[in-house]
Amino acid sequence: MxxxxxxxxxxxxxxxxxxxxKGPAFELADDRPAExxxxxxxxxxGYRLRRASxxxxxxxxxxxxxTGLRAVHVSILAVIEDNPGVRQGEIxxxxxxxxxxxxxxxxxxxxxxxxxxxxDEADRRAVSTxxxxxxxxxxxxxxxxxxxxxxxxxxxxxxxxxxxxxxxxNKI
Amino acid sequence: MxxxxxxxxxxxxxxxxxxxxKGPAFELADDRPAExxxxxxxxxxGYRLRRASxxxxxxxxxxxxxTGLRAVHVSILAVIEDNPGVRQGEIxxxxxxxxxxxxxxxxxxxxxxxxxxxxDEADRRAVSTxxxxxxxxxxxxxxxxxxxxxxxxxxxxxxxxxxxxxxxxNKI
DNA sequence: TATTGTTATACTCTATAACTATA
DNA sequence: TATAGTTATAGAGTATAACAATA
Lengths: 172, 172
Prior knowledge:
Strand order of the largest sheet of chain A: 1-2
Distance between the termini of chain A: 38 Å
Structural class of chain A: mainly alpha
Helix content of chain A: 40-55%
Oligomer: homodimer
């Protein structure tokens, strides 16, 4: 579908989240215990946040299989679509990607024909970016994949819970 | 404090989270816009989760400055403390760390004198682990740092909100 | 002098494969 | 044969420093 180098789709799904039983007393019988106690870690927001984020990133990567695009690529395309003509450095700042790492990413997307870069008229040091027709089409496809991925990965949360989660995350 | 190689404390705090104004209409005036539109990304739980997790991880690393320990080290120590004699492989499975990556981590912690490894009596292929007195003391110090870090990083959330957040994250 | 973008580079984190020793 | 642990290595992800062009 694209000419970006395809990601090696991890076959064996690692990232084995272990959910502890919530019971009051932990059963530590004579035979080998099936689960480990992890109360200290489980009480930490940072720990749960990282585990949950890893879970979603793994499913996200699977949902993008075949496109040759990773999360950062799609993020860049989405920012450009909503901010036509945006300069490369602004994208990096918005996404938390260092300038030095933006350069090869943008070169990849340009080489794949998804975006065009032109010298900024007001500041000729800067590069103004916009999507190509192909880039718009690919992004539309990716957005659909991503929304399906979120529905699948968050199926245990109600719509109300998802909104609460987003609101709380925004306060961090 | 320890003989683990110290992490190069990142001086310039990167990870610049950009929070968008929530207003209904976005002001796109003639002069340069100060912020970019990122509505598509901001609506995604996976995106917000990763940004929030990165924010906490950065502050976590700062809170551990001087100990020579990273998050995964403390996680391992905490699991061993709550599960004395636990086998190395079990720790890795509980934390989502591959066997191949557990080996050097455990060797570091053992070399630092924080844990002891002995062949498992029931299965001599396996290694049984327990904390040393030093390991217990270091872990106690780390736990205090971590709880202070969480209080600091989550000060914008009420206790009720933190519990709600943990509950929702556990459902992912 | 400061900033945009580029290149080169290094370090961490994670993933794979091959090996040993036990089971 | 299957598993626990080890080793080596390769691939992303992320960070720094130096440079050219422009402001």
